[in-house]
Amino acid sequence: MTAKARLIELDAYHLASGHVHRWYLSLGKYRSRATDTPAALPYLPLVGTPAAVSVALVALGEALGATRVEVGRIELSNALDWQGERRARVYDVTAGTWLTVTLPERPLNLLLTDYALAGWPVVDRVVEAGAALSTAAVVFRGVMEMPEPARGAITIPIRTREADFDDPVLRETYSAGDGADLEGRTKERHFGHGYAEPTYLGVIGGKHTYSVNGAHAIEDVAVFWDSGARLTKVTSGTPGASEWKVDPATGIITLGGTRPSAPMCEVKGDKTGGVWRRYAGELAQHLAVTHTGVLTLAEVDTASVATLDATPRTMGLWLAPGDGTTGRQALDGLLGSLARGYWLMGEDGKLSVGRLPAAAGAPAATYVKGRTTPGLQPRAAAGRGLPAKAVTLRFARIPTPAATLASSATEADAKLLKAAWRESPVSDPATAAAYKGARTVTIETALFARADADAEAAEFLADLKRVVGVYDLPVYDLAPGVTRRSVVAVDDDVAGFEGGRLVTVIGKTMRSTRATLTVRT
Amino acid sequence: MGYGYLADRNRVPTATLTSSAAYQANAPLDNVKTLPLVAAAVTTTLGTAGGPVTITGAFPERYPCTYGGLFDTNLRQAARWRLELFSSAVTLDATTRLFDTRGADGADRAVIPSLTDWRDLRWGDPNLFRGDLPPEDFALYPTHVHCIVPVCRPAAFRWTLYGPAYEADNSEATGYSIGHMWLSDGVPLARHMDSEDVYTPTDEITRFPGGGVSVEPGTGYRSVTIQRAVAARGLRDALFDMARRVDWSRPVVWLPDVDSLGDCFRYGGLFQKREPHANRWIAPKLTAGAIHLEEITV
Questions:
Q1: Which residues on B lie below 8 Å from A85 (Cβ)?
Q2: Nearest 5 degrees, angle CA A269-CA A273-CA A277?
Q3: Chain B residues touching chain A at CB-CB below 8 Å
Q4: Last residue of a domain, which of B187, B212, B238?
Q5: Chain B interface, best mutation among A83, A101, A475, by max B CB count within 10 A
């Protein structure tokens, strides 16, 4: 065993040139080898304390899609350099060239004066001293916040990239020409397949006009109701009384007759780039890449998207004008609609979506109490750890249920529009008999079709009726190779863990030399 | 048994360096002037006896020198080196040569020469025929090259290297790596009673309930305490001046015994002071004191 070095590579925006420069810093002595790329690169030993960062994947114990992030801080040494003339090799990412930067007496003052750090990525890796650079294992990838300078040290808060999604999904706003009640509000969008209350744009060309997707292309509008009465869809010509027409290129609906008192639509939504995305994985990718531009396509684990959508689940996401839903909430909502669904920014720097795997298969690591861990520490799980005897899955939400219905509404339409949610209940008598206090769980989802909802309800119940233990597992190293959603084996004297038991990792906290895993049975 | 040796005021950072070899872009030649050691000069090729790697430096001013050193290199112990000092920065030949490590037979010095009495060697030892350090012991320490020079005022110097070099994992390297280069004057002094050579591992120990222990390896470092039970005025003042110059931040070179390369290899190297410098008066004109040094490992 040899000492390990922590390698910190931080990208910083050089204010003068507008280029992104990559700085190579370390805790401990490390220089890449002549056969590595980059070759013979010294990592300046200026890191005082690496960041303690905590990431967790799900509401503890229950797979509900949400990703929890906490901010850590990284401390860099900026002690006076007695000799001066110290040089750093810096990679210009924008131009693809290497630069030699002569450092000032306080070597990292440049980062404070010449660079913008906030929002730029940082990678923390661990490597055995003297080993090849390719053997370095990623501890975490994060994003820097505003640095906090102190004499002799710089502290940089670090967060993980999930927080990049904290901006609202709706970006475009209505202008003054769209009327006083819409001016300045964000434009509505509809993703996937679901119900939407169209936005009234006013009378345009003598016709009452509605919009469902902020003037962006959609697949189609299937039905238009007025107080539960279906209006007649026409595809050509000018709509007459009780008729309507939709322009799929803009998502604009033109009515022929009078203004409806309670309009409601079934929308096959956003078709940016000519693709109607309606399944959970592709919708998440669309929100992250093509819609918000937070990520590039290379930063998405497209294989995980394909795997998730191999079992297609149609979803709808309706965001009314002025809706402040953030990307993170939207992704939480989409992936939380699937049993054990999650999304995260992985150690490879890519957005990954999927379903948390069951604790089965070959473990990524084995931890033994007294040897590699001081032992499991139970922590409170959601819902007091009680199993669920029944799950009611809600789906296909009507944004505004109808208060009054037209007499011409069919019975099916009246039922649909009166209730905000469709429901798919499932129950498990065996759990109800065994656990008198078992819970009944209601889950609101973005699912649209009843077949999908019934299948997911069964999946949710299968997961929630299990007795799930959630534990903290402190380990002696940084657990390289163990990520959220890995399966590890734990050998402890807690009941059920004697002789080893497989658990799924749902959270990881990194401190300077060791990690704490949060695991779920 | 020779005297110990303490040097500060490295003159190499003022010199203009040139080399016969090409260097890695990320590890240029001028890196030998600066710390940290990890920012080293790394050549792209190895030298041979016929075509060695030379590094030539020209000083802007002629300083008195008694010591030359290379720190944190990757030379194997059988690799050869040569240091020449010249009185002219322009003409570097036999007419201006002040000092040459080559003896009358023209042989170059090995990084670790034969150290051991052949009678101590056992049959089958890996160092049986060369008598240098066993390779396992050699790998425990950073590879420094030390050279004590009769006092002179060079205007230029030339290091010559050839032979094999190692990578961190003990595989064969394709270039030489030199962390720091030194040429300066220094102070000879002997250690007195209670002097110490200390090795401190920085391993992190965790004890688990139930008796388990995990040890996370760290980077160990050496430290030295040089006790002087008595020092006369010349040495007293020289050491006090040095304490003012180096503070706790600048490096010093410590050699425990200039006549024993084995001792210098194990206990000598590049250090920083870590304690205040005190002259304790024991008699008129005589003082006692101690110097505490800690190794620079990065």
A1: 13, 33-34
A2: 40
A3: 13, 24-28, 30-31, 33-40, 42, 44, 167-169, 173-175, 177, 202, 204, 206, 208-212, 214-219, 247, 249-250, 297-298
A4: B187
A5: A83
**Rg of chain A over all Cα atoms, to the nearest angstrom:** 27
| B34:A44 CB<8 A | no
- Looking at the complex, report in whole angstroms how far the Cα of residue B149 sits from the nearest Cα belonging to chain A: 25
Say what the pLDDT of residue A305 is.
92
Q: What's the pLDDT score for residue B65?
A: 93
Answer with the one of A131, A164, A197 that is the final residue of a domain: A164
With respect to residue A413, please indicate whether it lies within any of the assigned structural domains: no
Please list every residue in chain A whose beta carbon sits closer than 8 Å to the beta carbon of residue B41: none
Residues A79, A158 share a domain: yes
Q: What is the pLDDT of residues A248-269, one digit of tens each?
A: 999 899 998 888 888 999 999 8
Q: Where residue A69 falls among pLDDT bands split at 50, 70, 90? A: low
Mean pLDDT of B264-276: 90
Asked if A252 and A210 count as a contact pair (C-beta separation under 8 A), the reply is yes
Chain B residue at shortest CA distance from A90: B26
**End-to-end alpha-carbon separation of chain B, Å?**
31
The pair of structure tokens assigned to B222 is 């050496």
User: Residues of chain A with pLDDT > 90: what percent?
Assistant: 29
Q: Looking at CA atoms only, how far is residue B121 from chain A in angstroms?
A: 29
Say if residue B143 is in the same domain as residue B167. yes
Domain extent at residue B160: 4-187
Clarify whether residues A77 and A10 are in a common domain: yes
Tens digits of residue pLDDT in B214-255: 777 788 899 999 998 888 888 899 999 999 998 888 899 999
The rounded distance, in Å, linking the Cα atoms of A292 and A327 is 8
Rounded to an integer, what distance in angstroms lies between the CA atom of residue A317 and that of residue A282?
Answer: 13
Instruction: List the structure tokens of A17.
Output: 């040139």
ipTM: 0.84
Contact A39 B26 (CB under 8 A): yes
- List of residues 6+ apart from A479 with CB closer than 8 A: A365, A508, A515, A517
Do residues B175 and B213 share a domain? Answer: no
Which residues of chain B does A34 touch, with a Cβ-Cβ cutoff of 8 Å? 24, 42, 44, 167, 173-175
Report the residue from B27, B175, B218 with minimal CB separation from A3.
B218
The count of CB pairs under 8 A between chains A and B is 120
Residues 6+ apart with CB under 8 A from A437: A386
Q: Are residues B103 and B162 in the same domain?
A: yes
Instruction: List the domain range (segments joined by +) for residue A458.
Output: 383-404+418-464
Same domain, B107 and B125: yes
Q: In one letter, which amino acid is A423?
A: E
Cβ of A34 within 8 Å of Cβ of B30? The answer is no
Query: What's the predicted TM-score (pTM) here?
Result: 0.79
Buried b (16+ CB within 10 A) or exposed e, A290-310: ebbebbeeebbbbebbeebbe
Q: Which two tokens stand for residue A227?
A: 């107080």
Residues B150, B265 share a domain = no
Per-residue pLDDT tens for A24-41? 998 888 888 888 888 888
- The DSSP H or E segment spanning A280 is helix A280-285
Q: Is B217 found in the same domain as B131?
A: no
